[in-house]
Automatic annotation (TrEMBL):
Keyword terms, alphabetized: Signal
SMART domains to which the protein is assigned, alphabetical: PKD
Gene3D superfamilies: 2.60.40.1190, Immunoglobulins
Record bears the keyword Lipid biosynthesis: no
Organism lineage string: Bacteria, Pseudomonadati, Acidobacteriota, Terriglobia, Terriglobales
Residues covered by the PKD domain: 340-389
Protein name: PKD domain-containing protein
Source organism, top-level taxon: Bacteria
Signal peptide boundaries: 1-47
Keyword Signal attributed: yes
Pfam name, any one: PKD_4
Length: 402
């Protein structure tokens, strides 16, 4: 794909010979495969709205009967005491196993300018991480290029383009693929562009320009506290060299144009599968790019989240897990009755539980309900035992009732 927002009219045709994807308007899309549509972002008004795509066909089979994806990639869980520092130094990532690394050999140039990767021309390795309790995705991007192209102040720049769909709801995220074909393009931009899934064009490197284009109507999502970045390199434009970029982003289920005050962060949970993909756009001094290396098998993943890869938020690797560790949470079900539900979240193979509720009462249930007789602040203790030993967790005055 030629870069989509250069201020010059660019053709973008569906690859010749590609079968029409189920869920698209077959007649229109097949016609579009022979006649490219035009788009521009530099003009004050959009060109005539391109043909809209239908959402992917709704799955009607029972859960669990669909064929498994070709591959589910892994997102490494950093221990809470080993969160990577965003400083451009990859040292914090040394604990991440190589099985989490995704290289250019797992991607393809879907513009067919290169039959296979040539590490002497371009070599890329990406690792993705997360931290339980934080709705952030951490990235380490390491690349070698024989010609780094980053002198232009505009969008012409070697680029790491990522698209994330935190709840894997799928569907279009740019106006060109909107479901409502009769909607004005600018209305679509301000109502749905980047709202339910986000696209970031990250400049590699960024020099004299912002580090990323948040392609949508929410530029605030590339700034602190939702994102941060640091890069390291020593080459100049046109030279070869190695580039290191560390950054994190926050995925959103809703990121409206009105600003972060109504935004809804995606909840990142252990073993959850999210939608994520990326492309590496390499220019090598050409007016048009010299390669669009895509992790997704679908070229248009940049604007349709249904074509993103599946990534699993992994548990801690075994070497970072405690053999036994008491953990728990609670929820006040009824303040008038002072009814509290306690949830055991202990780690390890637990054989017995002892809850002390702070009012003289106790329970050996794993997930007890308890009703307090009086208002007050309570020290609640959970003690667990298992084959690996014992563990205790006390919380002081977290449980406070009126």
């Amino acid at each position: 794909m030629n870069h989509r927002m250069t201020g010059r009219h660019r053709q973008e045709a569906l690859p010749v010979g590609r079968a029409c994807t189920p869920g698209f308007i077959s007649v229109l899309i097949c016609a579009a495969s022979a006649a490219a549509h035009l788009m521009t972002f530099a003009q004050p008004t959009f060109a005539q709205a391109p043909l809209a795509q239908e959402p992917p066909a709704r799955r009607t089979e029972l859960v669990g009967t669909a064929p498994p994806p070709a591959q589910i990639f892994k997102i490494f869980q950093f221990p809470a005491d080993k969160i990577p520092r965003i400083d451009g130094d990859p040292g914090d990532w040394a604990i991440v196993p190589e099985s989490y690394s995704i290289g250019l050999d797992q991607m393809h140039d879907d513009e067919h300018k290169h039959a296979k990767p040539d590490p002497k021309d371009l070599d890329v390795h990406v690792k993705v991480g997360w931290v339980k309790g934080l709705n952030r995705l951490y990235f380490l991007y390491e690349a070698y290029d024989n010609y780094w192209d980053f002198s232009d102040p505009g969008l012409h720049n070697d680029t790491f383009e990522i698209v994330v769909d935190g709840d894997r709801s799928g569907g279009p995220l740019i106006p060109q693929f909107r479901n409502n074909a009769d909607q004005d393009t600018w209305d679509a931009h301000f109502s749905m562009h980047g709202v339910q899934a986000q696209n970031y064009h990250i400049m590699t490197p960024a020099e004299g320009k912002d580090w990323a284009l948040a392609w949508g109507c929410q530029p605030w999502d590339k700034e602190l506290p939702y994102a941060n970045h640091a890069q390291s390199y020593s080459f100049r434009p046109g030279q070869a060299g190695k580039y290191v970029l560390e950054f994190y982003i926050t995925p959103f289920d809703y990121a409206g144009c009105e600003g972060p005050q109504r935004a809804v962060e995606s909840q990142l949970l252990e073993n959850k599968i999210i939608g994520l993909s990326w492309a590496v756009i390499d220019y090598d001094g050409n007016q048009k790019n010299n390669g669009f290396w895509n992790l997704s098998p679908e070229h248009t993943m940049y604007g349709n989240a249904s074509f993103l890869n599946e990534f699993r938020l992994m548990p801690l690797e075994p070497q970072f897990q405690k053999s036994i560790d008491a953990r728990w949470s609670f929820k006040i079900l009824d303040m008038d009755r002072r009814l509290v539900a306690f949830q055991d979240e202990s780690i390890g193979k637990i054989t017995s539980w002892k809850w002390e509720f702070g009012d003289g009462s106790s329970s050996s249930d794993q997930h007890p309900l308890h009703s307090y007789a009086k208002a007050g602040q309570y020290v609640v203790v959970l003690s667990v035992e298992g084959h690996a030993g014992r563990s205790r967790m006390s919380k002081i005055w977290d449980v406070t009732l009126r």
